[in-house]
């Protein structure tokens, strides 16, 4: 079902103003730093607060039309997955997952059966009889995903679902979310709130960038993240993205090969993107071949140089293969030493260890 | 050098009990404890304290939830009111109950005239007095637990489609159980030791309103040995309460 929301809200010195649509079967990422109003936005969608002015509709149903909350949280058909799994500590894993079907009136047996189905969907069937205290962070979040899905929500809200997980657990859960969010034929609208551009890239079709409660940019995820149009977005989300086809140890692009570290859910031969931060791109004068460890080197031409906080962000305009439109962060001293200016030919180098390969989707 | 005042404090708690133990006439103890007056008092105390604890739980849990979850400003005033029996001298509480439910009190008069019910100086009055003084213990310990836990589990439950009553029954109450256990034990202990409000509001009639503390007071005038024996009994019950239920507040765990 399509989610449509127009929200205006003021709390003390903070104000939020946003308007967006999420078509069925798609994921919208709301990207912003802490305090930008992301959680307030989710609260309005879930029915926890009433905005000062606004409308929330889901399919044919109007959930909120100020000044009234027309549909209470428990009647909205909204699933919420938070940073912490928040499994009910007194219930076993299977009863946690059975909570939603049970609350909607299913019998004990039928709801447990549904719970086991959803647990196997998230590869956690063997955890069914444990108590939440006996689970690791990653396992608990798996179960929390199953619990949210077991309610068969029309709208799924994800509030920084990977932020509390350790580095080892996050990629697997990200892969799991990709699989369940993008499962064929689902009609669910999903809103993902995150401060991590990688989550947006891996999970969302569209992204909306929020700064101090205002939408500063929106569009297709890959467009917004690879070519931010506002300095704000560039600062929080400016990433180098190169599109291609995944291979064993990297990405085959139209103009060459990039070595990198594939995410666990990347399959060779599938469309994928290579992601690396501008800070991990080294710049050498043209012709000077680096004999060091960076596996990826490419010729390029300096397009623009702009100050970016303490560093200078260099953008390439042209080059061999995949070097078009890349960003590199340099210190002002390095820019002066290399005598860089628009039009200067250079050579870029990126360590393979700094390149992550993620599955690509969407147009 | 904290151990000097700490030792003094410990002595203040322990020495009186030791004094009582030293004063006890152990030879006559079985006979003193099994006298009909003692047994009556013990039975009445246990029955009324259990009933008061049940009422404390039935009324105190919803009150604690309302106090902890409500966002309105008036609730702050209400919270202070709930604490009143905790800081009020029990005798004053007993007087207040008497002037509410006594024959001249407005509610007591109403009950007497419409239903012929007279509450003061009955076992029901004992239970009411004990509930009055003991309930704040339960409410305070529950409210603290509720605030500490926050309402995040409840929010998740409501997004999973649980109606408010289902949330209360399947999430709020089970999560509260540990705090409820310690709160109930504290309330039970307070009800068992209740004296001032009971004697003012319910009087001291053997078998009807004379609970153990009242019997101790009663015997202290007539037969000191008997009073000491009963006091010993109350200490044993108190130690049992701590040992069996181990309320978290008593053990000092959060």
Automatic annotation (TrEMBL), chain A:
The keyword Signal does not apply. Residues 2-237 form the ABC transporter domain. Keywords: ATP-binding, Cell membrane, Membrane, Molybdenum, Nucleotide-binding, Translocase, Transport. GO terms for biological process: molybdate ion transport. The keyword Signal does not apply. One of its GO terms (molecular function) is ATP hydrolysis activity. SUPFAM superfamilies: MOP-like, P-loop containing nucleoside triphosphate hydrolases. Residues 291-359 form the Mop domain. InterPro entries: AAA+_ATPase, ABC_transporter-like_ATP-bd, ABC_transporter-like_CS, Mo/tungstate-bd_C_term_dom, Molybdenum_import_ModC, Mop_domain, P-loop_NTPase, Transp-assoc_OB_typ1. Transmembrane segments: none annotated. Pfam families: ABC_tran, TOBE. SMART domains: AAA. PROSITE patterns: ABC_TRANSPORTER_1, ABC_TRANSPORTER_2, MOP. PANTHER family: ABC TRANSPORTER I FAMILY MEMBER 10 (PTHR43514), SULFATE_THIOSULFATE IMPORT ATP-BINDING PROTEIN CYSA (PTHR43514:SF1). This is ATP-binding cassette domain-containing protein. It comes from Prauserella cavernicola.
């Amino acid at each position: 079902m399509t989610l449509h929301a127009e929200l205006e809200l003021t709390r003390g010195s903070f104000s939020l103003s946003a308007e967006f649509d999420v078509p069925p079967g798609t994921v919208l990422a709301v990207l912003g730093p802490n305090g930008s109003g992301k959680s307030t936005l989710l609260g309005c969608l879930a029915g926890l607060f009433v905005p000062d002015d606004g409308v929330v509709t889901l399919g044919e149903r109007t959930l909120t039309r100020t000044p009234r909350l027309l549909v209470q949280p428990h009647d909205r058909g909204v699933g919420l997955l938070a940073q912490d799994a928040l499994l009910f500590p007194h219930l076993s894993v299977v009863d946690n997952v059975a909570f939603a079907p049970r609350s909607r009136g299913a019998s004990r047996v039928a709801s447990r059966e549904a719970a086991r189905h959803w647990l196997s969907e998230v590869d956690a069937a063997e955890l069914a009889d444990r108590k939440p205290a006996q689970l690791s962070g990653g396992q608990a979040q798996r179960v929390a995903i199953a619990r949210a899905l077991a309610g068969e929500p029309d709208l799924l809200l994800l509030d920084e679902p990977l932020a509390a997980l350790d580095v080892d657990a996050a990629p697997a859960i990200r892969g799991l979310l990709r699989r369940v969010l993008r499962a064929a034929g689902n009609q669910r609208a999903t809103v993902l709130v995150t401060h991590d551009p990688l989550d947006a890239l891996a999970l969302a079709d569209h992204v909306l960038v929020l700064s101090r409660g205002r939408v500063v940019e929106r569009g297709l995820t890959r467009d917004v993240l690879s070519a931010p149009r506002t300095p704000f977005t560039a600062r929080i989300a400016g990433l180098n993205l190169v599109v291609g086809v995944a291979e064993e140890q990297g990405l085959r692009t139209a103009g060459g090969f990039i070595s990198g570290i594939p995410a666990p859910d990347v399959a060779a031969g599938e469309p994928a993107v290579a992601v690396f931060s501008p800070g991990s791109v080294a710049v050498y004068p043209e012709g000077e071949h680096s004999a060091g460890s960076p596996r990826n080197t490419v010729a390029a031409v300096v397009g623009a140089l702009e100050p970016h906080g303490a560093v200078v962000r260099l953008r390439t305009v042209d080059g061999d293969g995949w070097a078009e439109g890349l960003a590199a962060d340099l210190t002002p001293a390095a820019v002066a030493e290399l005598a860089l200016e628009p039009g200067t030919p250079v050579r870029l180098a990126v360590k393979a260890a700094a390149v992550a390969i993620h599955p690509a989707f969407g147009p | 050098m904290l151990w000097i005042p700490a030792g003094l404090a410990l002595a203040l708690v322990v020495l009186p009990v030791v004094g009582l133990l030293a004063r006890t006439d152990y030879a006559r103890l079985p006979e003193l404890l099994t006298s009909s007056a003692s047994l009556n008092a013990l039975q009445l105390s246990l029955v009324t304290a259990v009933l008061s604890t049940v009422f404390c739980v039935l009324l105190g849990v919803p009150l604690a939830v309302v106090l902890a979850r409500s966002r309105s400003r008036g609730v702050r005033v209400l919270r202070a009111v709930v604490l009143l029996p905790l800081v009020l001298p029990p005798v004053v509480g007993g007087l207040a109950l008497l002037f509410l439910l006594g024959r001249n009190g407005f509610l007591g008069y109403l009950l007497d005239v419409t239903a012929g019910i007279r509450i003061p100086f009955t076992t029901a009055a004992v239970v009411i007095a004990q509930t009055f003084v003991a309930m704040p213990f339960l409410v305070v310990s529950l409210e603290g637990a509720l605030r500490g836990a926050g309402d995040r589990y409840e929010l998740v439950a409501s997004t999973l489609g649980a109606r408010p009553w289902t949330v209360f029954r399947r999430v709020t109450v089970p999560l509260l159980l540990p705090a409820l256990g310690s709160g109930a034990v504290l309330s039970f202990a307070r009800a068992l030791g209740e004296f001032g409000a009971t004697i003012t509001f319910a009087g001291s009639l053997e078998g009807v309103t004379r609970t153990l503390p009242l019997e101790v007071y009663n015997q202290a005038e007539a037969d000191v040995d008997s009073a000491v024996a009963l006091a010993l009994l109350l200490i044993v019950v108190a130690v049992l309460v701590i040992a069996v239920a181990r309320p978290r507040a008593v053990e000092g765990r959060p």
